[in-house]
Structure formats: C-alpha cells, structure tokens
From TrEMBL:
Residues 4-129 form the Ketopantoate reductase N-terminal domain. Coiled coil: none annotated. The keyword Oxidoreductase applies. This is 2-dehydropantoate 2-reductase. It is an enzyme of class 1 (oxidoreductase). It comes from the Bacteria. Its EC number is 1.1.1.169. Keywords: Oxidoreductase. One of its GO terms (molecular function) is 2-dehydropantoate 2-reductase activity. InterPro entries: KPR_N. It comes from Brevibacterium marinum. The keyword Oxidoreductase applies.
C-alpha cells in the first residue's frame, strides 16, 4: 500500500517506520520549508512492542521521504493523520481539497463531535483509529515506542466499509493486533477525560514520575475522571466499561492499580518517561486537555468543582510557572 503520513511527528514516524518495514511505500507530508530542517533521515531509539511486552530495542538511522506538496490527483491509498486534537481543523481543511480517492485514517484524540470534525472530508473515506505508542524527539532522534495493539473503532457505521477492512488488514499484516471499539465516539471522549485527569495530576505534582509514585495523587486523578464523566454524557456519549469502572470502583483500588502499572518495568512507563524527558509533553500539551473539558462543562452546565479548583494549574494565564 502507498501511505502518506501527515506530518513527521512522533506517532507518524513510529507507525510509518513499522508500515514501511512490512513492505509498504511510506512518505511524509511536511509544511513548506520543513524538509530541509528535518533532513533525509530520522535517528531511531525506540522500542518495538510487537515482538515483546517490554519492546524490542531499535536503534539507527532510518532514511525517510519528505514532500512539501500534495496535489488532488496523487496516488496514495491511505493518508494517516495523527495530530494534536487542537490541530485537527487545520489538517482536515488542508486535506479537504487534496484527499482525492485516498482513505483517511484519523489516528488521534478528538474532543469535538467526530463526524463534525471531518465534515469536509467524504464520509465514506474516513476510518477511525488510535495508536498505542508515543515518545518524543531530541533534535533528530526519536525516543519512544509502540505496543502491539492499535485501536480501530466505529463512528456512525464507519467500521462496516471496505476501507476500514483494508486499514485493519494493513496493520495486522504488519504484526499489530487490533482492539475493536464499537462506540468510538464515547471511547475517544473518555480518553480525553482520562488524559485531562492525568495532566492535572502531572501539573500539580511537577513531573510524571512524581505523580505515578504518589498514591494519593493517583487517587485524586481517579476522582477527577469520575467527576468529568457527566460531561461526556452531556455531550451525547455513553458510559463505557472504563468510565463505569471509574464511577463505581473505589478510587483507592484504581489508584493502586495505576501505581503498579505506571511504576513498573513496562513499555508504557518507558514511553511516558521518554515523552517527559524529551519535553514532548510541555505545559501547553498538558493544559489543553483539562482546559477543553472545563470549557465544555461550563458550556453544558455540568458541575465540575474539583476540576475548577485545579484551574490555576492549567488555565491560560498560568503559563506553566
């Protein structure tokens, strides 16, 4: 398959490398002028979770093909979009006149209504998914990794198309396992709420490591997530297994489980450590999640007193100090 990765970010590079290793032709679209800045290769220092739960170390230079233009008559089969959720409008607007006959895999967080976010793209060409990786760049070196599993989900019948099946086959052929999500709209919104809770805890504690080593801080994360679930429902989402667990299982138990997971010698901890060490998750990347959830809570009239009490840590005027 001929694949275009939209941007040369962390997720695009991780999964672009994995797909090319399986024999696919992979290019990267970058903004005009950026190809010279990035150069012809990426130095990899990553862990490949397809081979083992802790991830097989991969190091070395990987030559990449960058392009700064995209015509509507291109011959790409698939365009993979993985951007920050606040960059979605710009990405979709750019692709709306250039997508041609390609499938578009949306591979990132969404807090707005998913169908509305991609309304300018042909509905039957959109596939929804979410990665299981992360990390960050230090100069031209990518530090991070990805798990064996990726998520593919359904938004208004999108999983019943040949394009969805083709994307599924692409990833399974490359050695990934697929976690299917029936209600991807609610899944995505819950993921943003979970991120919002974690980011508030991270900002309050000063570092990810300090957060995950503090059981009281993790319990507070659970309480924040629990408080934000009504925002999800007010937006039209449904309570999934994860949100139900956050509502009904005591915060002490979930906090203990999170502590064990996030302080263990595992791939997820490694990925988060690399994201933190490289500065990939800076103040703005942290603050945007609780900020956006709080804005919708206020718009919808949902009370979130715990989140509001933490606003000084993530509000637009705090500046990360």
């Amino acid at each position: 398959m001929k694949v275009l990765m939209f941007g040369r970010g962390v997720i695009s590079t991780l999964y672009g490398w994995a797909l090319e290793r399986d024999g696919n032709e992979v290019d990267f679209y970058v903004r005009p002028g950026r190809a010279a800045d990035f150069g012809p290769s990426v130095d990899l220092d990553i862990r490949d979770g397809r081979a083992s739960r802790k991830g097989k170390p991969v190091q070395g230079a990987w030559p990449v093909t960058l392009r700064e233009d995209l015509e509507a008559d291109h011959d790409y089969d698939l365009v993979i979009v993985s951007v920050n959720h606040d960059q979605m409008d710009t990405a979709v607007d750019f692709l709306s006149t250039r997508i041609g006959g390609a499938t578009v895999l949306i591979f990132n967080n969404i807090w707005t209504e998913p169908a509305a976010a991609v309304a300018s793209l042909p509905r039957d060409q959109v596939v929804w998914g979410f990665p299981g990786g992360g990390g960050g760049y230090s100069d031209n070196t990518l530090h991070g990794g990805f798990a064996k599993s990726v998520f593919l989900g359904d938004v208004d019948g999108s999983s019943r198309t040949d394009r969805h099946r083709a994307v599924r086959e692409l990833f399974t052929a490359a050695g990934f396992s697929i976690s299917d999500v029936a209600d991807f709209r609610s899944w995505l919104w819950f993921h943003v709420i979970l991120d919002a809770g974690i980011m508030v805890g991270w900002l309050r504690m000063g570092s990810f490591d300090a957060l995950v080593r503090s059981r009281p801080a993790l319990r507070e994360v659970v309480r924040l997530v629990r408080e934000m679930i009504p925002v999800l429902r007010a937006k039209g989402g449904t309570s999934r297994l994860g949100s139900a667990a956050a509502r009904y299982i005591p915060a002490d138990i979930i906090g203990f489980a999170m502590h064990k997971l996030l302080t263990g010698d595992n791939l997820y901890t490694f990925i988060m450590d690399q994201a933190h060490a490289t500065g990939h998750i800076d103040f703005e990347a942290q603050a945007i999640y609780p900020r956006d959830v709080l804005a919708d809570a206020r718009r919808l009239g949902v009370a979130v007193p715990r989140l509001e009490a933490n606003e000084p840590a993530f509000g637009s005027g705090s500046g990360g100090d």
